[in-house]
Amino acid sequence: MAAVGEDEDRDKLSKLVDAEGEPVLSNDDLDALLADAAVGDTYDFNAAAAEGWRVKAARAAQMTSYSVGDLSVNNEQIFTHCMQMVDVYEGIGSSVGDTRKKLISVRVGIDYDERIQPTPFR
């Protein structure tokens, strides 16, 4: 069970990444993001939020757009929004976030500045 301070940190990150909005981030997802963004005994919330939005973008890229009656859900727009939020939080992040992004890029074998491009829906 998480300590009170950890719950508050998770709640703060949850709001920054709209964790309850689709695609959803679980408490386990949020805890992992916080663990990766630990800087001493605090967190780089901007780096954690940027990575959280990147996770949401990856999940949105796998979702299918659909229409039901007058309701239409275009997941390409969700993906684009998520990537815009990545840029927002990376823009205000610390150098720790930049270093972390480079490390993640090396781990998954992508170019440092490479961005995931949405697949057009047909």
What does this structure look like?
- 58% of the residues lie in helices and 8% in strands.
- Strand 1 (38-39) and strand 2 form a beta hairpin.
- It is mostly helical and 122 residues long.
- It has one domain (4-102).
Please outline what is shown here:
The protein has 122 residues and is mainly alpha-helical. A hairpin with a 2-residue loop joins strand 1 and strand 2 (42-43). It is built from five helices and four strands, in the order ααββαββαα.
Instruction: Output mean pLDDT.
Output: 79
Taking strands numbered 1, 2, ... along the chain, how are they ordered across the largest sheet?
1-2
Helical percentage? 55-70%
Count the DSSP helices.
5
What is the number of independent domains?
1
Please tell me what the overall shape is.
elongated
Low-confidence segments, given as residue ranges, are 95-122
Element string (H = helix, E = strand): HHEEHEEHH
Percentage of β-strand residues: 5-15%
DSSP, total strands? 4
Distance, first to last CA? 45 Å
The radius of gyration computed from the alpha-carbon positions, rounded to a whole number of angstroms, is 15 Å
What structural class results from the helix and strand content?
A: mainly alpha
Query: How is the biggest beta sheet arranged?
Result: 2 strands, antiparallel
Task: Identify the notable features of this structure and list them briefly.
single chain; 122 residues; mainly alpha; two-stranded antiparallel sheet; 5 helices; 4 strands; 58% helix; disordered C terminus
